[in-house]
Amino acid sequence: MMILQNINNKKMHQSRRSFLTRSIPVCTLGCLGLSQIFSSAIEPDIVKKPVHKFNKKTGYSYEQAYRFRARLYADRMKRIANYLGHDNLIDALKKSNEDYYTSIAKYKPENILQDFVRPFYEDEGYKIILTIEVIENREDLVSWKVTECLNAKVLLELDAAEIGYATLCHGDDAWARAFNPNIQFIRTKTLMEGHDCCDHCYKMSI
After folding, report:
1. Domain residue spans of the chain
2. Burial 49-68 (b: 16+ CB within 10 A, else e)
3. Which of 53, 78, 151, 205 gives the lowest tally of CB atoms within 10 Å of its CB?
4. What is the pLDDT of residues 59-107, one digit of tens each?
5. pTM for the predicted model, two decimal places
6. Are the beta carbons of 165 and 193 closer than 8 angstroms?
């Protein structure tokens, strides 16, 4: 008799669970943090799909990842220079860099200097690959020193600093002017060229 009662109780429990999982929307379960609890009742026969190899996490550091890509890029550029000539390659990289930065910075009359520099302070990508020491931060003038740059570190070590400068640094002036023609960009040193820092200064003229 006790066994029969246990079986009946088990069936009743299963039916209640089935009713709940069919009555409550899945999004509601997720919001309540209950989706995992009821997942076996909703899809009891579905096994978790394995992660595709392209989507598996790697144990690379940022520097290792940058170095892997930079090594391939620098090697290809040096090989292309053998066909085009070194100076022609560098000139093409500089011009394409200017074109790229001009294309991503859309001018609007309301664009102000602080809007342009804000991503350098707030974007996680910049915060990881750059170490910036702010010297002055006003509405019409912003200056800072970049004391560490992962791009410069890696490309200097790969003996590809000139390629790196043409690809990554040269277009900074065009970028600022494309955002707002009244932004004047001044720089006398870069880490990529072997100096102790990049000294960036942005002035907003009216």
Report:
1. 2-42, 62-204
2. eeeeeeeeeeeeeeeeebbe
3. 53
4. 889 999 999 999 999 999 999 999 999 999 999 999 999 999 999 888 8
5. 0.72
6. yes
* Tokens encoding 195: 């100096």
Rounded CA separation 189/173 (Å): 13
Q: Are 192 and 129 in contact, with CB atoms under 8 Å apart?
A: no
Q: Is 134 helix (H, G, I), strand (E, B) or coil?
A: strand
What are the tens digits of pLDDT across the range 153-204? Answer: 999 999 999 999 999 999 999 999 999 999 999 999 999 999 999 999 999 9
CB 187, CB 200: distance < 8 Å: yes
In angstroms and rounded to an integer, the radius of gyration of the C-alpha atoms of the chain is 28
The CATH architecture assigned to 62-204 reads: 2-Layer Sandwich (3.30)
Q: Show Cβ contacts of residue 47 under 8 Å, excluding neighbours closer than 6 positions.
A: none
Distances (CA, A) of 34 to 19, 21, 101, 154: 15, 10, 47, 47
As a whole number of angstroms, the distance between CA 200 and CA 117 comes to 11
